[in-house]
Amino acid sequence: MTTTHSLGQAARQILIQNDKGCYTIPTKGLYPYQWNWDSAIAALGFAEFDITRAWIELETLFSGQWSDGMVPHILFHQPDPGYFPGPDVWGCDGPIPSSGIIQPPIAASMARRVWEKDTGAGATHLTALYPKMLAWHRWIMQWRLDRGAVCTTHPWETGRDNAPDWDKTMARMDASDVGEYTRRDTTHVNSDDRPTNFDYDRYIKLVQLGRNLHWDQAALREQSPFRVADPTMTFTTLGAARDLLAMGTELGFDTTGLTEDIKTLEAGAATLWNTDLGAFDSRDVLSGEWAGCVSSASYLCWLGGIDSDQMMDRLRNTLETVPYPVPSNDPDSDTFDARRYWRGPTWAVVNMLIGLGLEQQGHHAEATELARKTGALISEHGFAEYFDPLSGSPAGGKSFTWTAAVWLAWAGRT
Ligand code: 9WN
């Protein structure tokens, strides 16, 4: 019988095996570099047994910060032909070879939690990190707002690559001149569980556009066909702003502007409420069209400090009716696909972010229930990248860093 203790040991082993010294890869083979939000989650996992290593993870992430404050979604510390697109395709010139886009800015919120677990040198680490985290927040506020909501300029930025949220926007894009390239992801895992070639052409087309514009945000805002105000970016930015305000106040930093930012982002979050759908939704900024999607990101409202009775009713229903919640796409939707990446599968990492938000907002019963269900899913089906929400079967990469970290920091503790 697998005990909680032995699962804890296995989870630590995964973090240790995926540890490259000062950063952690998400999984061997499929993802051989440092990813931004994966790294923030890894730090939380390390904080359970090696607090110094937790800080190092975050410090390495911010060592890749660009001079304008942007923190890239991938840091290519060492070349690896197993992943495409690599640094040569992105054409960026930050301090470390990197991609030119961001990912959900959860690092500040995770740093605050690491700090809470640190009885020693935490304040010293955090004091050094704080101005960098604030600079990234300011970059987002400067470049990515639409009516106060935070926009994504590439599906990869949200971490929800092929979510149906982007379908209408992607369908309008012409990628006929993208040229020849070879996908590497499908050499590691089952192609039926991955984004389609139609989507990949558009992912690469957007990378080519960014590169041609030298990742100039003003030019991208003018010229990119992809600009979507999204719950992932908005709620994580809002949660981070609140955490930056709290940490800055406690550490004695100048927090001028953060209270205003929080108000702006709260107003932005309200613009993501789709009344017809009855849920937080994504909104194409260029066409003004709703995506019409209830995704797992819709439930990140609590992480952003926003309460919603309607989202709570939905969550309770999902917890009762979906065998392995929370699905990344509504099972009643025509676009639902139980295996294909972000079009249905359950991601333990998103569950934890939803759960931490619920806990923060005082919804203890639902937070505990979600943690218990996520723990059961991992103990029955392992530390997979993601899971079929109907059968629980594991999919994608194995021995996955963030699933192990989720077990250590949250799901294995119930
Ligand atoms: C592109 C690393 C990342 C996660 C994302 C997930 C997937 C990359 C890919 O893997 O995205 O960034 O190549 O598919 O969608 O959430 O951070 O685990």
TrEMBL record:
Could you list this entry's UniProt keywords, alphabetically sorted. Glycosidase, Hydrolase
Per UniProt, residues of the Mannosylglycerate hydrolase MGH1-like glycoside hydrolase domain are 31-403
Say yes or no: keyword Hydrolase present. yes
Offer one Pfam family short name for this entry. Answer: MGH1-like_GH
The entry sums up its family as follows: Belongs to the glycosyl hydrolase 63 family.
Q: What is this protein called?
A: Mannosylglycerate hydrolase MGH1-like glycoside hydrolase domain-containing protein
